[in-house]
Each structure stands twice: as C-alpha cells, then as structure tokens.
Amino acid sequence: MEYYFSDRKSNILGVGSTDGKGEWRIDNDIEKQSVDNRPAVELSLDIHFTNDQEQAVNEMAKATNFIMYQDEEGNAHQMVIESVDHDSLGHIHSIVASDAGNDLINETVGAYKADKPYTIADYITRFTNDSGWEIGVNEFPKNVRTLEWTSEESSLARIIAVAKDFDAVLSFGFEFVGTNLVKHVINIRHETAGDSLISFEMNKDINNIVTHLDTYDMETSIKAYGAVPESTDGSTNQDPINLIGYNWTDPTGQFVLDQYGFLHDTIAVQKYSRLLSNSNPNPTQSDWNRVKTFDSKSQAALLQAALADLKKYNHPNETYDIDLVNSPYVPLNQTVHIADENQQLFLSAKVLSIERCRANHSVKLTLGEFVHENVSFDERLSELANQMANMAKTLKFYPWTRYADDDKGTNMSALPAGKKYRAIVWSDKTSVPSDNPADYANRWELIQGKDGADGVPGAKGADGKTSYFHTAWANDVSGQSGFTVSGGDGKKYIGTYSDFTKADSTHPADYNWALFKGADGDVGPKGDEGLPGKPGADGRTAYAHFAYANSQDGKTDFSTTDPNRKYIGFYSDFTSDDSTNPSDYSWSLIKGADGANGKDGVPGKPGADGKTPYFHIAYADSSDGRTNFSLDTPASRKYIGSYTDFTQADSANPAVYSWQLVQGPKGDTGPQGPQGPQGVPGSKDVPYPYVQLDAPANPKKGDTWWHGTSLKDATAVQRYDGSKWVDDAIAQAVLYIKELNSIILNSAEINSPNINVPFQHVRISGSEILSSGSLTLHGASYVISGNIEDNSGKPNGQIYHTEVNPDGLLSYITQTDGTTQMHTSRISMGVLELTDLVSGLGNSAKYITSTFNAHDAVDYYHKDSGLETNDVKKLNISYSRKGPNVTIGIAFEMKTGNGWVKIANIRPGYSPFNSDDAARLLGSMSYTGAACELYVSAGGIYIIPWRGQGGYAGSLSFITHDAYPTNDAVVN
Asked: For 497-501, which contacts have Cβ atoms below 8 Å and span 24 or more sequence positions?
C-alpha cells in the first residue's frame, strides 16, 4: 500500500509504502471503520525516519496536512492529519488522521422544517451548501420525506441524520487526476447487509467463544407510552399517547393487545411465567411487565415500536465474545457465520467494525447482532442443486489430468505409469489439457503411497458377494488431517464404511468419522499396597511385619512388640526379621482420641478404579485367631490378624485374617544386675511432690501436689504450708519441655522462629461462615490460610490466604475450584493493588487490576495567567487533576480570526490519553451565537474560532495517562 502526503494545497510532499521499498517506510497502519460511525474512516500509522530525514518528516506529515491512498476495493481516500507524536529517540513519527469529510463538522446548520417533501439529495445539498461537496452515487433519486430539526448542529451530524431517516448509507468519495484532487463527493447507497458466505470455525479460525446470558432487560408484556400530542385548544396538560382503545390483531396469534393498553407475548409468558409448574405447564398470566416510553406520535406508530421492543426482549439476552485468529476482509454490516461443533453452536453475526492493517496483512473484525442458525444439510444440498440448475446451460468445464513424480509437477506426463502424484483441473477454456505445471499448482495429490491393510471381509450375503468393512484414522472430524488406512496410533478419529470391494478407499469423504480418543484423563491416586499372599511357585515365603508407634510417621515411641500405641505400621517382604526403620512401614491410626470403637477398617487411598480399600485388624490368643478373638482389645492378645478388602465393616470370621505372633512366651528371669551407686542420704523433712487426684494424706510443710481431672491432665499445682494447701507456681528461668498441651501463657516472651496454630471449624467473626486452617509464624512471614466450610463443617472448595511480609501484605480468596483467585489485594511499599476475577477459571481466567498510591488521593493544581500569542491575549489556563481525571479551564480574547492555531503547549502531567475526547465548543462572552472550537492534544492546545473578536471561556475534562506533575500545588 502506498500513501501520498500533501500540504493543504494538495502539493505532494512525499510517498510512503508498507513494503519498505519507497523513501518512507510505513508501519502499523490501521484503518478503522464502524457501522455506528459511518461515513467516517479513521487512519493511524507510523513513519520511520533517519536523522537526516527528521526535518523532512515533520514538514511532510504535520497536523492539517493530507494523506491520500486507494484501498483494495478501488475507493480513493483523502485523510486529514489530526494529531502527531514525534519520537526523536525512537525515530518514529506517528499520526492519526480522519476522513476529509469530517471537515463538515466545522460547519454549523440551524433548525429547519421542510415546507414540502424533498429528496435525500435536496436535503444534503442544502446542508452542505458552499462546502465544495457534490452528490456522487445516488440510489434514492425519487424517495421523498418531509423532515424537521428543532436545534442547530454540525453539518456532518445533520446529513447523517438525513441518511438515517431515508435508511441510506453515506460514504465520502474522492476523484483524482494523477495526484490532483478534482472532486469530492457524497455517495448515497442502500445498505448492503447481505450474506458474505464466510464462516469461522472453532479451533481453526476461532481461539475461544465466551457466552453471556442475562435476563436484566427481559419482558413478556409492555405498557407503551408515546409523545405528548400537540394541543388543539391551547391547554398544556396533555397526556402522552398510549395504546388504550387501539384495535389491532396479530395475524400469528402470538401477540395480544388488551383493553388496558398492555401488549402481551402469549408464547413467552408460557416459558417464563412465575406460575409455571408441573401442574400448570402453560400459564397465561404473571407476565414480566415493563413500562417504556417512545417518540411515536400516533397509536399505530407506537404499536409498531412496542411490538419491535417486545420481540427484541422477550427472551434472555445472549451475547458472545469471539476471539478470531484469521479474519478476511468483510464489508461492514455483512453477515458471517460461526460454528462450534463441540457445543453444537451455530451463529450468524453482523460485521460492526473493521480494523485493517496493510503492513501486517491483518484484518480485525468486531461482530454483533448474533442470531442462532438451524443448520440443515439437506437444505444446503437443495440450495446447491438450485444454484446448479440456474447455471447457464452453455457453460462447460473440461477436465485436465496430469501425472508427476512429486507435488511440484516434476517430470509431468499425461500417462500415470510410474508416477506417484496426480492433478485434476477443471477448465472452462479448452478441452486440450495444458502442459504447463504452473496451471496445476496446489492441485497435486498422492495416488501411490505405502500399501495399506485391506478391509476386513464380512460374511457372504444372500447374493454370494463378500462385503468388506473398511477402517481409516485421522486427526480431525473431516478425515483430511493425518489420514491413514494402515494404523491408528496417535490418531483421534476413526472412519468406517462397508462395500463389496476389498481394497480400502483413500478418499476421506468415503468414511463415516467419529471421535474415538478423547483427551487424557487425570491420573488417579495410588492405592495402598495389598497384603502378602501365600508362598509362590518359587517356594519363597512372604512375611508380614507389624510395628506400633504414637505418631503417623512411626518415629514417636516406635516398637515392634508393644501394641499399646495409637498407630500400627505394616509391610511385607521375604525376610523374617522385622525392620527397625519406621520409614519401611505404612502407618494407620488404630486408636483415636475420640474413643471410637474402631470396628470399621482403616480406609486406604482410592485406587485407579475409584474404589476405596479398607485395612482390617483383629486380635487373638491363638495362631488361627479362634481363641479370645477380639476386634478392639489388642493389649492382652498374643496374635494380630489382618486383611484388606473394599468393605468398610470388619469381619467377625477369624478365618479371613492372616495371623502373626506379636507376643511370645514369658522368658526366664535374668541374672541380678550390679549394685547401684550409694545414694544421697535421705531426710524425712525433704519436700515430696505428689501427683494424684485426691489430696495426699499426712502431708508435711513444703510438699507439692499436682492434680487435675485425670492423671494425664494436671491443671493445678499446690504447696502445703503446714496447715492447708495453697496455690503455687513454677519459678524457673528456663524450662526444657518436649511438648505442652492446653497451656495458657500470661505475660510471656516467646523466642521462636516458628509458631504454628491450627484451627478447626472456627466461626469467622461477624458471619456464619466456618473455616479450618492454620496461623503460622515463620521467620519474617505471618500467614493465615484455610478453607471455607458450610454450616456442617464441610469444605466448599474455596481457599483463602493472608500473608504479612516485610514488603507488605497479600490477601486473596479463590473460587470453589481452590486455585482460581477471585479477589486479591496487595499492599506493598506505598501502593495498594486490587485484582478481581472477571470471567473464566484456571488458565482461562481473566482479571481486572487497579492500583492506588498517595498521588491518586490528592488534587494537583496549576494556573498560567496573562499569556499572549499572535492570535489571542489575556490567556488564562488552569489545570487540575485527581488520579487520571483532568479538567482544564481556559479564558482568552481573540486578536485574529485564524483557524486551527496553537495557543499554548499542554502542561506535562495533563495531556489527554485520547485526543478524540479532548474537544469542546466554547461559548462567546461577547457575541450572541458565536463560538470557538477548543482542541487539546499531547501536542498542545488549539482553537478554531468563528469570529476574530470577543472573549471566550469554558472548561474541558478528559482522561490522562501522563506521569503525575512534580512541581504543582497539592491539595489534600
């Protein structure tokens, strides 16, 4: 694409090209068109320049200069450069331009009422008088309307309104002779809202489809009001038009107008009435009522407006976000088609806007007005048949067939002998095939590959023929991708058909395709190891080993002989000796703190098939388990039995257990040990510590008594003062204690790098929500994390996490999947960051994030007074900013009548992010009806006055992305 740059007199100053071959290299050229903004066309582009070209590019592509180009459809464009960003360091000159037709925004037309019906050309000519624009193509030469406008507006807005009343579409056209503009025209055309016949498919042209459904605006009946009728008797208390008393019958019977002026949808109310139930499947009452006002000036017009509104909102609103990968150019308002076979979702949509980049060869479409399509294969075949029937009878096509050694047409021949590839081309020119390989490009297909397996022969039919069942494999549902008949390894789809031919077809279309390999599922958790079996065929004997401990890892109070423990460990091997390493055992809780009877087996982890295995234990005094068999009394038994199955209840049959001796016969008394060392001489006056439930008998002064509700729960210590027991305390500088349970510490200093406080089913303050988790202090990190539970204490999947570190605070809560963060807040080094989930889960989640710091909380202010330029005097500019919001107040007096002049540079920290939003009309303080257009951009403050005298004042607000100002006043 070539772009011609000219001055205001259409003198060519330079030519840029997107292919990099011209003097100026153009990049990121984006042309924008939209249905809502027609006939306007917007263009932005970057011009690359060298140090030697810097002055020239500033002159060639400065504001108000023209850009001219011709698009792929043959339309000529003249654009006006509206804003410029010049990057000296990056050597990029960026511009934004709009269609030259936008110059009509600078013309103002007043109120107007037609005295008779006029054509659309009459109206446009009247409202563009003396602007230099002419009528070009006019597809509405005879249509007339009597129109009225009660206020003034720009010439561009007025002709767009005219086009809307005629249901016409306007476009600006430019005619050039060479590079000289000889005419600019306004074309008037019918809306070309046809079907583009272009389809986008999921996983091919579409990355993702997000569906949105809501009922916010839904209605099944409407009470409509129109405009207030003009008074015929001078009164002012007129009621707006309504539908009461209007007679109308819907020919389909779906819509009914009642005597009270309500328009009902009899089908929608049956679907959505609140009275809908199994006993009342077709309700006729309890509508979703809405009251709305329209501009209609008659009951007939009001009925049509209400009917259109009811048809639009009589069902849930359904919208789609479609992420397109490949987008061809499609004209505005044309229909495209969207297909997602997995969801069986078939839609049509209108093209609402187009962004076309010639440098990147890309097109971005915005789609809307989605409609569900009912795809019928038979209908499409019928349509194709009709098209073929309507083709000209004299039109003939001739097949050209050639063979070659490869898909490039090497050694092309008319004969197939020894050739692996074939090409068939249908020509409407001649029946004599071409011998030029270029005419067969992209048409070559492999006809001789590796020999595949033949079809599977079926039983002979009644006629004596043998039927064959054929299979093939591929990577997509059409069979085109990865097609093979010789094995399905790694393929996702299988194709089948039957016929009476032994050889497999090599045409994917002959097969019926079906998905036979879905995505791999998650690996299930590993199940517990089974119990040892009987001696195998090799004669080796398997041994079951048991151990006991008071912790889940087996390291606390480990023993292979004393079963009076909370946990049992198990493993099996071919060695008779028990291991003394706790890590060799698989540990299970057999003695809980809650006193449960323990009769049920210990559940293992679910195996690969999803079943839960249970480990069962029993005790007895004989090797067959029949003497003193017990499920819950291990302490006095000599043998332990075990087995594993998928039933939770323990068996009472000793025969199902495998028995092992855990307590042997009592051994002989050992020899007497050596005499111990002489002890310290005793004294009857030495204080004695008692640990018992009842008060000691005959205590002496200084004795201590530890007591509580049980011997394991000493809750008090008292000292005997000679006559009674008094409360006492432990006075000790350092205590070495292995474990403290149920302890209250008062006025204590704790020196520890790690503190863990688990909690179970606690109620979160101020709510009915339960939670289980832990509070931990580890080094410099303080963390509270846990899950959210329902009222019965069951986790609902949500996880929360709050963490305090030296650099700040982090807090979040997840969705019920336990991983997708729903709300996140972070405070770090003076910045508050807030993140909320917008849509999706996991890797598909989309978020919105905002930050807040001290600058965002204050108002910045600056004022420049008494400025003067060649065009204005007494110029006062005030700047105020809070966060990204900027307001500029301005007042000045005109010295000249020059248009589009720069009167000041924009102050750093206050330039607009979007120059299109930074413009307004200032009223004159000196002359009634006079005004001045004010534009604010990164390049400065500009004005276009209507008169060269008088004073003007006003304010303008917009958004900025500038860094905050550094030397301006701060107002808290």
From this structure: 497/470, 498/458, 498/467, 498/468, 498/469, 498/470, 499/467, 499/468, 499/470, 500/465, 500/466, 500/467, 500/468, 501/455, 501/468
